[in-house]
Amino acid sequence: MSKGPISVQIYAPNQPVIQTDALFVRLPGRSGDIGVEANHTASLVECHFGEVCLQNSNGDSYYYMGDAIATIENDTVVIIASLVEPGESIDRKRAEAARERAIDRIRLSKRDSSIDTARAQAALRRAELRVSIAHKCPLS
Amino acid sequence: MSIRDIKDRIVSVEKTKKITQAMKMVSAAKFKRHLRALNGLKAYGSGLQHMGSALARRLYNDDLPELMQPSQAKRSAVIVLSSDRGLCGGFNVSVFKALNALMATDESIDLFTIGQKSAQFYAGKSIQCAGSRPGFSITTPLSELTAYMEPFIEGFLRGQYGHVRIVYNGFVSALSANQVVQSLLPVTLPDWNPNVVSDADFIYESSKVSALNAFCRKMVMQQFMEGLYNSLVSEEGFRMAAMDSASTNAKEMISELTLFYNRSRQAAITTELTEIVAGAASIT
C-alpha cells in the first residue's frame, strides 16, 4: 500500500524557504543515508553536505545541501541547512571548473607542502557532487 | 566676502549636494538589498525556532548539550557591532551608549569589536579591547563568520566565558533602531520546561550529543548573523537619513547664498550707477 505525502520544509540563509510535498525523502545522514516516508518515527538527524532527493509521482527533484540538521515529526521534515541549491539552479560549467581546480590543487599538493590537501579533497568531493546533481536535473 | 567668493561658495555647496544625493541613492540601494537578506535570515531563524520547540518538548535536565548548560565562569565576552565608515548620523554613538551602560553594570567583560569605528572609539578610552576586526559585509561567506565565532564557542566550552553576548543596532525602520543586547551563549530554548517532557519515541541520528550540539551551533550562528544583518540594515538606514538631511541643508544654504549673492550684486550695481551719475553731474 502506497503511503501518503509528507511535507518538506528546507531552510537556508542563502535561499527563500522551500516548501513542498514528497512521497519519499532521502537525506545524507552522518551515519549513512536516511529514507523518510509517511509515519516515520520522530527523529533529529544530523546531516553532512550531500544530496537531498525528494521523490514524487511526477518525478524526482534533487538539491545540493551543506551541513544540516533535520527533524522528522508528524509527517513533516524540517531541514535547517547552511546552504541549499536546487539542482536546476546549479551552474554546471562553474561546478565543472571548480572540480578541475580542485584536481589541480590536489596534484600540486604533492609537490607544494603549503597546499592543504584535506581541504582540496573536500572541495573536490563537493564539486563532484554538484556536477552529479546538475547532470540529474534536465533544466540545468 | 566678495561677489566672486559668494559665487564660488555656491558652486562648492552645489557639488557637495550632488555628492550627498548620490550617497543617499547608494545607501538606499544597499538598504533594500540588506533588508531582503535580513528577511531571508529571519525566515531561516523561524525554521530553527520551530525545530527548537520540537526539541524543547523532549529534553530533560540531564539531556542538555554543553552549549545549553549554564556556566559557572564569571567572565563574559561581549561583541559590539559598529560600522567601518562614518557619515551615518548617530548609528555608532547609540550602540556605544548601550555598551557603556552594560559595562557599567558588569566589570568582568572582555570586549571584542567588529567595525573600525568601535575600535577607534575604544582605542582612546581606558577600556582594553580583547580583539578587533573590520566589519563584515552581507557577502561574507558563512565559513568566515563561523571561523570568527569558533573561538567564542570554544571559550564557552572551556569555561573561559560564562556568557557570550552581542550588542548591535536592531533594525526598526529606515529612521530608527533600538539597541539590542543579545545573549548567544548559553543557548536558550524559550519553550523548554524540564517538568513537561514528552516520553514519546524520538530517534537521534548520528548520536544525541552530536545532533544537539549541531543544533546549538546553528542557533548561535543564526543569532550572530541576524545581529550582523540588523546592524548592516540599520547602518544604511541611518546613512540614508543623514545624507538626506545633508542634501536638505545644502539646498537651504544654496538658497540663502543665492539671495545674498543677488543682494550684493544689486548693491554693487547701485553703487556703480550712483558713482556714474555723480561723476556726470560734476562734469556738467
What's the quick description here?
The complex is a heterodimer of chains A (140) and B (284). Chain A has 140 residues and is of the alpha+beta class. Chain A has helices at 92-109, 117-136, and strands spanning 6-12, 15-22, 24-29, 32-36, 43-47, 50-56, 59-65, 68-73, 76-81, 84-86.
What does it look like?
- The complex is a heterodimer of chains A (140) and B (284).
- With 140 residues, chain A is an alpha+beta fold.
- Chain A is 27% helix and 43% strand.
- In chain A, the strands form two sheets. In chain A, strands 2-1-9-8-5 form a five-stranded mixed β-sheet, with no helix packed on it. In chain A, strands 4-3-6-7-10 form a five-stranded antiparallel β-sheet, with helices on one face.
- Chain A is elongated, with a radius of gyration of 17 Å.
- In chain B, strand 2, helix 3 and strand 3 form a beta-alpha-beta unit.
- Chain B has a domain of 198 residues: ATP synthase, F1 complex, gamma subunit (Pyruvate Kinase, Chain: A, domain 1), CATH 3.40.1380.10.
- Helices cover 60% and strands 14% of the residues of chain B.
- In chain B, helix 1 runs antiparallel to helix 5.
- Chain B starts with a helix and ends with a helix.
- The chains are: A alpha+beta (140), B alpha/beta (284).
- At the A-B interface, strand 1, strand 2, strand 5 and strand 8 of A face helix 1, strand 6 and helix 5 of B.
- Strand 5 of chain A pairs parallel with strand 6 of chain B.
| Low-confidence parts of chain A | none
Shape field of chain A: elongated
Taken in chain order, the helices and strands of chain B follow as HEHEHEHEEEH
- Please count the helical segments of chain B: 5
Alpha-carbon distance between the termini of chain A? 34 Å
Strand content of chain B: 5-15%
Instruction: Please tell me how large the radius of gyration of chain B is.
Output: 29 Å
User: CATH superfamily membership of the largest domain in chain A, which one?
Assistant: F0F1 ATP synthase delta/epsilon subunit, N-terminal
CATH architecture grouping of the largest domain in chain A: Sandwich
- Poorly predicted residue ranges of chain B: none
Helix content of chain B: 55-70%
CATH class membership of the domain at 43-240 in chain B: Alpha Beta
Domain module tally of chain A? 2
Oligomer: heterodimer
- Determine the CATH superfamily of the domain at 43-240 in chain B: ATP synthase, F1 complex, gamma subunit
The first-level CATH class of the largest domain in chain A is given as Mainly Beta
Task: Please identify the structural class of chain B as seen in this structure.
Answer: alpha/beta
CATH architecture of the domain at 43-240 in chain B: 3-Layer(aba) Sandwich
**Spatial arrangement of strands, main beta sheet of chain B:** 3-2-1-4-5
Averaging pLDDT over every residue of chain B, what do you get? 91
- Major sheet of chain B, described briefly? 5 strands, mixed
